[in-house]
Amino acid sequence: MHFRSVLRIIGILLMLFTAILLLPILIAWLYNDSTISTFLYSALITFVVGGAFFLGGDISGELRTRDGFMITVMFYFGIGIFGALPFYLSSQLDVSFTQATFESFSGLTTTGATVLTSLDSLPYALLFYRHLLQWLGGMGIIVLAVAVLPMLGIGGMQLYRAESPGPVKDSKLKPRITETAKALWYIYLNLTIACALAYWVAGMSVFDAICHSFSTVAIGGFSTHDASMAFFDSAWIETVAIVFMVLSGINFGLHFVVWNKRSLMPYFADVEVRVYLFALLSLCILICMVLMNNGDSVIDSPIRKGIFQVVSIATTTGYTTTNFSLWPSLVPIVLLLAAFTGGCAGSTAGGIKIVRVLLLYLQGIRELRRLIHPNGIFPLKLGKNVVPNRVIESVWSFFSVYVILFLLLICLVMGISEMDFITAFSAIGACLNNLGPGLGEVALHYASLTAPTQWILMLAMVLGRLEIFTLLVVLTPTFWRH
């Protein structure tokens, strides 16, 4: 492993992140709040540390796969810690370093779990910064670095593969990885602009429209208000959110193909998208029927609220228009389980991903056929394409490790705290799937949890964002052997 190369690139990325820390200063100046010094100090600390890494490192040779994994993991943890500085240094917030780091990791991983309350009274610059973290984390800061730093064009594929979500990471939209990253960011940026304009036309202020477009396209779920989308109480705003949450849950590579061909047919030709849309539609029908036929109490606007919460939770966005944890017992559990599936591979959504669940289902069907016809040969097909056995093995490996880690993390948080099972189950599920809101104690926020519990949940967030293996591989003895 090229340790000095890794160190220098980490330094470059931290210095690049300094520019991100300076952006909220413009918002602070426009709205005349007192957070300018907070972001200046945070940027200075980050730049000094990044500069020290840069001077202590060196570029020697082409990046290898192991280097890409190490850079990705180190940078995610590094930026999570340095990204916490504005929250920790702000005089307007009374948070510990653990809580500040939790908020930073939640934004960067697009989880949307928060320890902050009284959002409506926070300075605009801090609110903007929270959403900016989610927007950058949505497509991936590593992919951004590959796009804007030509130096990372050499070996950049290792970074792209390590950071990009989904079971198939070797397909490129362009011949060069730098061009691929730029193409993805072009689609991501245009979708964000379109979302912000739609929110503004629907009735949001310019500031709210920009912030919510960041967290919608990133499928992050942060809001500028404690009541989340319920603050606006607007069917038009909720409709805009639904449309862009659904779009953001689709593979961005497929968006690029649609844009290039100027045709919607690639969406309908893609098996994963068809299953994704069918699952959302079926879940909307089911939840709305349960809410309308609830005999215990009358739920206001069951169809409107039901559809919004299904799309928000199933895509792992995490916006709320009501406290869905108080809905009939079946509904919160079903919604939380839907978040385990998440969106399509290559999207900004969390969860296991639709394509993996689909492949697990097809593999199960194939095993049933083999029991009936032991000598039969049944190739597994996704649409018209035969899926290689290596991909099936990868999916099964991911699923088995995912389940084991999920159960271990539940036992761990219950062992170190007095958390009940429902809260522990939903908290780990919400963080591992990058969802945000959970059930029980974490239905509204995570501020009441102990510091050790919050650190475990931060680990779950990063595991979910990097799809488990990217982080686990650097912890194996084999990774460190020559």
For the structure shown, list the relevant keywords.
two-stranded antiparallel sheet, 1% strand, 22 helices, single chain, 482 residues, mainly alpha
Enumerate how many helices there are, as a single number.
22
The geometry reads as globular
Helix share of residues?
55-70%
Structural category is mainly alpha
Largest sheet: 2 strands, antiparallel
The percentage of residues in β strands lies in under 5%
Can you walk me through this structure?
It contains 22 helices and two strands. It has helices at 3-31, 36-56, 65-82, 85-89, 97-108, 124-139, 141-148, 156-163, 177-202, 206-217, 235-248, 252-261, 265-269, 271-292, 302-314, 330-341, 354-372, 389-416, 421-432, 451-465, 469-472, 477-480; strands spanning 381-382, 385-386. Helix 9 runs antiparallel to helix 11 (235-248), helix 14 runs antiparallel to helix 15 and helix 17 packs across helix 18.
Provide the fold topology.
Blueprint: H1 3-31, H2 36-56, H3 65-82, H4 85-89, H5 97-108, H6 124-139, H7 141-148, H8 156-163, H9 177-202, H10 206-217, H11 235-248, H12 252-261, H13 265-269, H14 271-292, H15 302-314, H16 330-341, H17 354-372, E1 381-382, E2 385-386, H18 389-416, H19 421-432, H20 451-465, H21 469-472, H22 477-480
Antiparallel strand pairs: 1-2
Helix pairs in contact: 1-2, 1-3, 1-6, 3-5, 3-8, 5-6, 5-20, 6-10, 7-9, 9-10, 9-11, 9-12, 11-15, 14-15, 15-16, 17-18, 18-19, 18-20, 19-20
